[in-house]
Amino acid sequence: MARILCIDYGGKRTGLAVTDPLQIIATALTTIPTKELIPFLKNYIATEPVELILIGEPLNLDDSPTHATPLVQQAIKLLQKLFHPFRCRL
Q1: pLDDT tens per residue, range 30-73
Q2: 17: in domain
Q3: Coil, strand, or helix at residue 11?
Q4: pTM
């Protein structure tokens, strides 16, 4: 099985976690400057099988958008464009 890559996208830094190949346990992978995210993902996906990319959606407790929600939505569109046919889900 391929891994699931999880992204906690931020304006300055982005956290990454990944499952084991059997998709049983997720562990922290690294935290990188957001501007380095795309090159890091290209390299990681070239060396590790990734089935799915999950990205966290920032919402307030009442499910309304936060100041970071548009930033994450923009990142999702870029990831879907660059890493097609990978599925990107919230």
Answers
A1: 999 999 999 999 999 999 999 889 999 899 999 999 999 999 99
A2: no
A3: coil
A4: 0.88
